[in-house]
Amino acid sequence: MAWNQTRQIGEIQVTSLTDASFGLDGGAMFGSVPKTLWERVAPADELNRIPLRINPLLIRLGDENVLIETGFWDRGGEKFESIYGLDREETVFRGLDHAGLIPDDIHLVINTHLHFDHAGRNTTALNEPTFPNARYAVQKRELDDARHTHERNRASYVPDTYEPIADAGMFDLIDGEHELRPGVTVLPLPGHNLGQQGVVLRSKGQTLVYVADLVPTLAHAPTPYIMGYDLYPVTTLETRKKYLPQWFEEGALICTPHDPRTAFARLQENPRGGFVAVPDEGQDT
Ligand SMILES: [Zn+2]
């Protein structure tokens, strides 16, 4: 079981969570990569969908609990659920419960971006903050873009998942790279859109990176395996070339938001250039 695994990054404890499994068109997920290549690493179902999950991450910092991503929006109705093939057997709430926590115990939520599969559980069915005692950290750019959509990105945003947070004054709007807590830094990772941020944890010489949709699953680690969904694919390429070598050099643990099986991975050099991501066999602590 890949979820609710705990790892220690120096003094920071992290626990892998998952919120839902779903499917998206494999062609859209791999952009310009031909199906003959991607289906070897991500076999498709009869509707050409590949299996995905949304994988939030719980961070324990002394007395503080931090949650990266809140989960997949659950108020789209039956047709929405069937389009995405949603299976909600595992939820972020079950994962927190397993970790001995309830939503009130979360002090800080980090939204990598505001797409409904990542920030969908920011609010409850009553349009109230799901995590009433938390600040919600998002890039200012991302909230601005969510409020000024166009035909290409509009379907990714559900205002009910962020406007109530803004109305309650619970957003911390971040501008660029910023250390939110000692050892917890958010880092702009543009390409999927322009307001996306990843999260870098560094403690006692160890590093973990929550890469957001820069690398949505392990299968996407090869440099040109870029989603058709990305608004700025060449920017994704540049962001990967900037950071993947650095994270590889640091021996960072890598957490992807959508891998269907693996919570923690590491980068390895690909003999043909760039990197591949392999499951990390480290011990659950
Ligand atoms: Zn995503």
Automatic annotation (TrEMBL):
Family: Belongs to the metallo-beta-lactamase superfamily.
Family annotation (InterPro entries): MBL_superfamily_lactonases (IPR051013), Metallo-B-lactamas (IPR001279), RibonucZ/Hydroxyglut_hydro (IPR036866)
Name assigned to this protein: MBL fold metallo-hydrolase
Pfam family, one: Lactamase_B
SUPFAM superfamilies: Metallo-hydrolase/oxidoreductase
UniProt keyword list: Hydrolase, Metal-binding, Zinc
Record carries keyword Protein transport: no
Zinc as UniProt keyword: yes
Ranges of residues in domain Metallo-beta-lactamase: 53-258
